[in-house]
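User: Predict structure, ligand 5-O-phosphono-beta-D-ribofuranosylamine.
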Amino acid sequence: MASGEGSNFEALILACRADQPPADVVLLVVNNPGCRAQERAGRLAVPCRLIDHRRHPSREALDDALIEAFTAAAVDLVVMAGWMRIVSPRLVAAFPGRLVNIHPSLLPSFRGLDAVGQALAAGVTLAGCTAHLVNEEVDAGEILVQAAVPVHAHDDHASLATRIQRQEHRILPLAVALAAQRLRDRTAAGAGRGTAAVQPSG
Ligand code: GRF
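Assistant: Predicted complex:
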């Protein structure tokens, strides 16, 4: 899922194509027609669907359209790679433990909009990014991977954002690998319990 530039989307594609992680990106969904992410999908030959929030009367209706698209594509994981909309509990419930987000701060600091600006305004000397599972609270789900970067005295918004983004491109593939591993562990644990349940009792 991407709304704008799509640099995280492209970084994830390139990582997956190098088998790190060994995953297929089967679909990109964008909400803004003509965004750079959509162009990147064309260049990288990844199927892309436009699901425009302006054409849906509510957050829930938008999320229903997303759920339908992801279900039809039979995806295991959904990655919010620069999705600039707040998702409703519906999407979270449809993909429990399967929805990953990337955020440009060291959470739990600087949740919400313009995390880079918030970090500069707070005068922190370390900033960074976080890839995390999504829950019903904004930018608050379980942390998967973080990376820290220094904030230099001469930094402005653009220079700090660029330094943070370089790290986002590294940690998002790692977070997808970790989320996928957890899913496999969960499935194996579930299968284990199932087997035990059918053991003869005597
Ligand atoms: C990233 O900084 C990400 O943390 C935030 O949105 C930005 C998307 O950048 N959620 P891009 O579209 O991947 O270049």
